[in-house]
Amino acid sequence: MSDNVGLSTPRGSGTSGYVQRNLAHMRPRDMAAPYPPRGSSSDADSSQYRPRQPDKGLLEHDRKREVEVRVFELRDQLEEEGGVEEEEIDARCDELRKKLLAEMEKGQGRGAAVGPAARRSFKMHQVHELADAKMKESERLRQALKISKDYQEGSHWRRQEDRLKKGLEQEAGAEKGERGADRERNADRDRDYRR
């Protein structure tokens, strides 16, 4: 037994005593952090799919970090060249920073590249960027297919069932109306016959 893992002795257990991690185990998504535990949902329909929301603060931080990296690269390049005064370096860096921040603001309004190609460019640790790209792609697809925002899966079939029930009720009401009309005609005929 090493590091308190496994059996103290494999004798009588029918195994070799070798313990390994189950690589096929997947943690259920509904138990993950952004989702409430089962049964405690405040929504009427907790089975509805809710995509994982990206953290806007982290996305903004990463964008600003990219700007600062490019500014630092410029500063490093100017310092390597030499012959440029410190004040000139600061002025150029501030100018580049303002330009990149303005471009970043414009890019947010338009929306960056979305789609499978854009999602493939993310690294495994960029889960918020991936979630943001996926949400933008889903929104584009929803608009392209003209799907309403309040759409629920299977709602077409529920509406169709409601129409069928309503049609059956109308038919039953029509039959009752016919029977009532027949009764009235028979009652009139009986009255006429008795006279």
From TrEMBL:
Residues 1-19, 39-50 have a biased composition (Polar residues). It is found in: Nucleus. Keywords: mRNA processing, mRNA splicing, Nucleus, Spliceosome. One of its GO terms (biological process) is RNA splicing. Residues 1-64, 146-195 are annotated as: Disordered. GO terms for cellular component: spliceosomal complex. Pfam families: cwf21. Residues 59-105 form the CWF21 domain. It comes from the Eukaryota. Gene3D superfamilies: 6.10.140.420. InterPro entries: CWC21 (IPR051372), mRNA_splic_Cwf21_dom (IPR013170). Its main location: nucleus. Residues 52-64 have a biased composition (Basic and acidic residues). Transmembrane segments: none annotated. Belongs to the CWC21 family. This is Pre-mRNA-splicing factor CWC21. It comes from Trichocladium antarcticum.
